[in-house]
């Protein structure tokens, strides 16, 4: 099921970002991130992870890989905090849930959105037995009719 979520995220990412990779490197690790409307999730996947599907909600998916010589990377756990900021200074924490399936580890949280809103996302993480890292990125979000 989680593989379906990842495939949905990746296909949407490729289609909407025209091959732009959303990752950042830090201290021998990679932080991969994506923001999508929750309507992009298949209903069964959303239900499994208690994510409300709505055109007025989006979700963030984060994963951390420790770089390896083979180029694939190894998923690692972390303590992660995420928040969103609007351009007028409103701040809201995003509650993240850790999802483990096999060797994969993801951190997912959903939040309400306004149409065509420009948001900033602040990520603060500490890799277990490893480095800490802070990262911010902008993302425009759109409400979708359901």
From TrEMBL:
Signal peptide bounds: 1-20
Domain named DUF4426: residues: 25-144
One Pfam family linked to the record: DUF4426
Keywords: Signal
UniProt superkingdom: Bacteria
UniProt key word Membrane: no
Keyword Signal part of the UniProt annotation: yes
InterPro entries on file: DUF4426 (IPR025218)
Protein name: DUF4426 domain-containing protein
Organism, as annotated: Reinekea forsetii
